[in-house]
Design goal:
The protein is α/β, with parallel strands linked by helices. It folds into two domains: 121 residues, Rossmann fold (3-Layer(aba) Sandwich), CATH 3.40.50.300; 244 residues, no CATH class. The protein contains 15 helices and 13 strands. Strands 7-6-8-9-10-11-13-12 form an eight-stranded mixed β-sheet, sandwiched between helices. Strand 3, helix 4 and strand 4 form a beta-alpha-beta unit. Helix 11 crosses helix 12. The longest helix has 23 residues. It starts with 16 loop residues before the first helix and ends with a helix. The relative contact order is 0.10. The model has no long low-confidence stretch (mean pLDDT 91).
């Protein structure tokens, strides 16, 4: 495997490229996702002529004054088959502008729009652009996207530096720490104030710094409200804001009365899994991120209804994840850092549910199927290859 610390992020073709390329021939495409996940670099890869960078005339960024003037005056680049509009949603009347551009130019011009959390927020509500675009969520880089051979060394690199391009390709602990600090400062200073009217930025920062300790366990909002000394409603609202900002995501329990499944407590994970404590929590968070990416990939490219949940009953038996496709459970995943025996909880739920496949993934090399239950135990990298995870 090549040393990924020396692979350029510009040389990596992202997992959504083919789907976006095909959709651009029919509709506009909007790309959302976390800050610094590579949305602009991804968009620039669709330019047909050099230079394929931010100096290309087809790339227009609302944050640049000269680009704003061209956009507002309707000066679109001539002889271009595609235009890239970056952060255009910061303009109060951006929907009307983009709608007019699409309606008058769609036969000869492809339009790709990229943006931050606010773009995602707008796309979840009804708007005048409905039916004119497809929306994609770009995720951090995962195992098979970075290394199709799914090498064990790549797993360790991803666990160490996370899946965001800048720290991953820098491959430096020092640069990783600097990036994490600057990344947090930016979304607290810019994205938070841009998306929501909040005054308690210092308390939200305290919450953000506390979240890594909550990874992988049922999250008690009541405990968080006590820690922050705010109401339950405020703590819940702040968590929702952080989900919109792609800081964290929560998954709900799944199950029926037959297994006496818990109903309410959700588990929390971070988009930057490298912030989670080393060992089991970080590995579980990386697997959660991979499965969420799988779900969003099927939703955004195939129109499936996908959900990521977990199994837990009132006796505290738990399986880390269950993936649902169109309302039916597709498979479960239990995470173990070591090559241990089969989880008793997996065996228990395998016997009492109709879920077709149970997997237990680990960081070792053993690969076997438990004779009594049919639970498959295998290395994480082999799991990713066999299920063709993006």
């Amino acid at each position: 495997m090549p040393d990924i610390t020396h692979v350029s992020k510009h040389a990596l073709r992202r997992y959504l490229w083919t789907s976006v390329h095909d959709d651009l021939a029919r509709k506009m495409v909007f790309i959302g996702g976390p800050r610094q996940v590579g949305k602009t670099t991804f968009a620039l890869s669709f330019l047909m002529t050099p230079p394929k960078n931010e100096t290309h005339p087809a790339y227009m960024n609302w944050d640049r004054a000269d680009h704003r003037e061209r956009i507002l005056s309707g000066e679109m680049p001539s002889n271009e088959k595609i235009i890239l509009l970056d952060e255009i949603h910061k303009y109060a009347r951006w929907r009307g502008l983009v709608k007019g551009l699409y309606d008058t130019q769609k036969s000869k011009l492809s339009i790709l729009v990229t943006g931050s959390a606010r773009l995602d927020y707008y796309c979840k509500g009804g708007d005048s652009l409905q039916g004119r675009y497809h929306y994609y969520r770009l995720h951090p880089i995962s195992l098979r996207e970075l290394d199709p051979a799914a090498n064990t060394k790549t797993v360790q690199q991803l666990l160490r530096f996370g899946g965001f391009p800048e720290p991953l390709f820098a491959g430096s602990e020092r640069e990783h720490r600097r990036w994490q600090k600057e990344h947090q400062d930016r979304f607290l200073r810019d994205d938070l104030r841009d998306l929501e009217q909040v005054r308690e930025v210092s308390l939200i920062e305290l919450l953000v710094n506390h979240l890594p300790r909550c990874v992988g366990s049922p999250l008690s909002v009541r405990s968080l409200s006590g820690l922050l000394q705010v109401s339950h409603e405020s703590a819940e609202r702040w968590l929702t804001i952080l989900e919109r900002l792609y800081v964290c995501f929560r998954i709900a329990p799944y199950g029926s009365a037959r297994i006496r499944a818990v109903k309410k407590e959700r588990k929390l994970y971070l988009w930057d899994w490298s912030q989670a404590p080393e060992g089991g929590p970080r590995f579980e968070n990386m697997v959660a991120s991979q499965l969420l990416k799988y779900c969003h990939w099927h939703e955004d490219t195939q129109g499936r209804r996908m959900e990521l949940r977990y199994l837990r009953d009132t006796d505290k038996r738990e399986v880390d994840f269950v993936v649902l496709r169109d309302g039916a459970a597709e498979f479960t995943v239990e995470c173990k850092t070591g090559e241990r025996g089969v989880s008793p909880a997996s065996i228990y739920f395998k016997e009492r549910t109709k879920i077709p496949a149970f997997y237990q993934v680990h960081l070792g090399s053993k690969d076997f199927t438990h004779a009594g239950s049919g639970v498959r135990v295998l290395p994480f990298e082999r799991f990713c290859k066999e299920l063709a995870l993006p």
